[in-house]
Amino acid sequence: MSLSQAQEDLLRQLKTNHKTGLSTDDAAERREEDGCFNVVDPPINCPAWVCCLLPCIKSIPSMKTFRMIKPEDAEVLRDGHWIRYDATSLVRGDIIRLEEGDIVPADCTVLSVDDGQMLVDGRYVTGEDKPRSCEKNTATNTFKPVQLFLGSHVVQGSGEAVVTAIGPNTKLATVIREKRFPPQTNMTDEVGYSDEDPEQGISLVARDAC
Predict the structure, then answer these.
(1) Predicted model pTM
(2) What is the sign, positive or negative, of the torsion defined by CA atoms of 43, 38, 70, 48?
(3) What are phi and psi of 176, to 5 degrees?
(4) pLDDT for the residue numbered 157
(5) Where is average pLDDT lowest: 36-45, 65-74, 94-103, 195-204?
(6) Cα(77)–Cα(146) distance, integer angstroms
(7) Beta-bridge partners for 135
(8) What is the largest CA-CA distance in the chain?
(9) Does residue 47 have a cis bond before it (omega within 30 degrees)?
(10) Which residues 6+ apart lie within 8 Å of 119 measured at CB?
(11) Residue 184 near residue 61 (C-beta atoms within 8 A)
(12) Which of 44, 57, 98, 203 is most buried, most CB within 10 Å of its CB?
């Protein structure tokens, strides 16, 4: 794998190695330093008294979208070995592998791509109506360090990336906090989170769907 100067600088900043990944001890230390797991709060945090309406809450558009883009696991390089790991346990500096059909498990920067190109659909995070293209620069034989975001979908190709942000520090978490989830795109007509007051939304769904 040939790395660009920007990629080498990023790996140095994150204190990680793209050939061996982090050690188990390093990962544990980073998780303690960050004080959080790779978990993003859902767009609607409901009070305890509405727990009985859980099936109805899941019918709210933003909650349906959130469940659809929530990653379950990830292929990560730890102690020099590729393992399938719970996505909530990823930390900054983890080296991950992305395959067609995967949900991107954390904010990350692409290091390499197999077979020349990887396409990643981030419409429900960024609002972009076209997939991001990760391609090799044939002149330098390196890959542009494209940024990908937790919740995006790999629609074509495969490659490796380094985790740059997790949980509450991800782009998805920011979009949700700012009540812009899911963002409007030309590819979807879903209602944005800003149009949904939690309690009003619950009452509407309870009336219409329950």
Answers:
(1) 0.82
(2) negative
(3) -70, -45
(4) 96
(5) 195-204
(6) 20
(7) 117
(8) 60
(9) no
(10) 131, 132, 133, 134, 154, 155, 156, 157
(11) no
(12) 98
142-185 pLDDT, tens digit each: 777 899 999 999 999 999 999 999 999 999 999 999 999 988 76
Residue 202 is which amino acid? Answer: I
DSSP string, 141-195: TEE---EE-TT-EEEE--EEEEEEE-GGGSHHHHHHHTT--SPPBTTB-PPPGGG
Instruction: List the one residue out of 20, 45, 23 whose CA is nearest residue 193.
Output: 45
Contacts of 117 (CB under 8 A, 6+ apart): 133, 134, 135, 136, 156, 157
Q: What is the mean pLDDT of residues 136-141?
A: 76
Give burial (CB, 10 Å; 0-12/13-18/19+) of 59.
Answer: middle
For β-strands 132-137 and 142-143, DSSP reports them as: antiparallel
Confidence of residue 197 (pLDDT cuts 50, 70, 90): very low
Residues 183-194 pLDDT 10s: 876 544 333 333
Q: Two tokens at 53?
A: 């309406």
Handedness of CA 141, 91, 96, 101 (dihedral sign): negative
Instruction: Calculate the average pLDDT of the chain.
Output: 84
Q: How many CB atoms lie within 10 A of CB 189?
A: 8
